């Protein structure tokens, strides 16, 4: 009887000792999300991202998107820059220099001017940020004409070492080949570029030798299988520069939005929000 009791006691002690590592493992697993969350916070940078509206745009053009980014604790709006037709900067707010993924909303006082003026005004804005806050790097996000003007700026002033260098450029529904629609397949467009060229697209071709290196994201809207456009900009125009920029060895990606894809609603689309978060801030 004593021998049986001894064997039972030994079995219980052995079983308890085998459970200890399981308890330790559970504690370690519970600690992992804390480390991961800290890493995500540490990924935020001081690099400002400029949001440039389209033709006839204004504060509401990117205003709601910027607010959603703030509400989701992805980025922080720190400034609004309004640029007059004379290229003067009217600044509201200031850059803190902190790693908040700072956002800057750019507004053109003459919001119906052409892309050449807007490229000049973007240059004035970036020069201001360099001179006032010592900004060395920026990201650009442009909707519609804002994307067109941003790429024209990059081809004209992108290699100017006295200005902040652009790290990432996202274009949302931008008519890079004006409003020319082509009937070619998407594969052919992405591989070879458009079969019909607008004067705007030819300008981009001529700018390639002075185009700096930056990452590119193209976002285009497609309303339906029958309507290969966002209702304003043909899909083939929004993606027309893909082959051109890829040939220039720029890292480039594209996404076609098919839900809530109407042109003026693209910057109100939460799918676009997520695409921007991933591209700009690895969120």
Automatic annotation (TrEMBL):
Task: Tell me where on the tree of life, at the top rank, the source sits.
Answer: Bacteria
Q: Which UniProt keywords apply?
A: Signal
Keyword Cytoplasm among record annotations = no
Coiled coil ranges (UniProt) are none
Question: Does the UniProt entry include the keyword Cell division?
Answer: no
One Pfam annotation reads DUF915
Q: Where is the signal peptide?
A: 1-20
The molecule here is called: Lipoprotein
């Amino acid at each position: 009887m004593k021998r049986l009791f001894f064997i039972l006691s030994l079995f219980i002690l052995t079983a308890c000792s085998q459970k200890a590592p399981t308890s330790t493992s559970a504690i370690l697993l519970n600690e992992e999300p804390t480390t991961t969350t800290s890493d995500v916070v540490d990924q935020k940078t001081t690099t400002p991202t400029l949001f440039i509206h389209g033709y006839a745009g204004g504060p509401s053009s990117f205003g709601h998107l910027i607010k959603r980014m703030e509400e989701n604790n992805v980025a922080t709006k720190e400034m609004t820059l309004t640029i007059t037709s004379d290229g003067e900067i009217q600044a509201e707010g200031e850059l803190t220099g902190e790693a908040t993924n700072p956002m800057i909303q750019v507004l053109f006082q003459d919001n119906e001017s052409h892309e050449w003026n807007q490229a000049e005004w973007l240059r004035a804005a970036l020069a201001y940020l360099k001179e006032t806050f010592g900004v060395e790097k920026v990201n650009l996000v442009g909707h519609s004409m804002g994307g067109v003007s941003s790429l024209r700026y990059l081809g004209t002033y992108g290699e100017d070492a006295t200005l902040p260098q652009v790290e990432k450029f996202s274009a949302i529904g931008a008519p890079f080949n004006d409003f020319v629609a082509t009937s070619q397949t998407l594969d052919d467009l992405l591989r070879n570029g458009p079969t019909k060229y607008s004067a705007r697209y030819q300008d981009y071709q001529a700018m390639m030798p002075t185009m700096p290196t930056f990452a590119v994201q193209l976002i285009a809207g497609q309303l339906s299988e029958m309507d290969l456009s966002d209702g304003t900009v043909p899909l083939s125009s929004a993606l027309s520069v893909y082959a051109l920029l890829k040939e220039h060895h720029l890292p480039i990606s594209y996404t076609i939005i098919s839900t809530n894809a109407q042109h003026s609603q693209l910057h109100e689309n939460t799918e676009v929000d997520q695409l921007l978060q991933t591209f700009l801030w690895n969120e």
